Amino acid sequence: MTAHLNAAEAAHEKAVKEMFSGIAGRYDLLNHVMSMNIDRLWRRRVRRELQDVLSDPKAVVLDVACGTGDLSIELARGARAQVVGTDFCRPMLSVAAGKISAESMDVPLLEADAMALSFGDESFDAITIAFGLRNLPNHADGLKELYRILKPGGKLVVLECSNPALPGFRQLFDLYFNKVVPRVGGMISGSRGAYTYLPESVSRFPDKKRLARMMEDAGFSQVRFTSLTGGVAAIHVGVRR
Ligand SMILES: C[S@@+](CC[C@H](N)C(=O)[O-])C[C@H]1O[C@@H](n2cnc3c(N)ncnc32)[C@H](O)[C@@H]1O
Fold first, then answer.
1. What is the number of other CB atoms lying within 10 angstroms of the CB of residue 236?
2. Residue 1: its pLDDT value, please?
């Protein structure tokens, strides 16, 4: 487990947990509306990235900050590996549990803080974290914790929002993300704060190259990234040495 959080980090976690508890029931609808359903394609890309390990019946794959379970379900579809989901927000996990049971899937869910997971060192064959790393109070320490519980040779796949680099498209995206998303998100979810937080958290998050360096600093090798949909999201992959 990583060291204890400082006071600011603990306050951040508390606020994030409360925010997701407040929007859990509307999260899926908002996700798909605001990403215009493209998030489904991004999740499929993550599954393709882990195809080998997912077809191994002895492998265990952990989906961290699994929320309402969309990525866990996508990974488990047709997989022979065991997929496990974990998140620290119980209302998000409750939505995930309902969806997993509706799909008659076997995906155990565990309530846990990604900054201090109670798994032993080198426990998992692969780890995913989708739109979760950005929400952690300390990205570098979060990555170190994921590194710790990954088996040597195991892959971490991070799916995260990012900022497009292409001039023109970037301005258009900024307008949508900073003006439209908080308004529409606020109206549908009843929490304007959550959808003001979203663009703010993306602007604070390291850009693609910096995140890659941060993964290397956490110990990962063979780090690479792929921009998705003009750079509004990215998949970063790293391997535990
Ligand atoms: C934007 S949602 C993403 C959910 C899901 N992975 C998806 O792709 O839709 C972020 C999730 O991260 C979780 N989260 C944030 N900080 C966390 C932490 N410190 N430990 C565990 N989960 C955390 C939240 O509870 C929330 O469910």
1. 23
2. 57
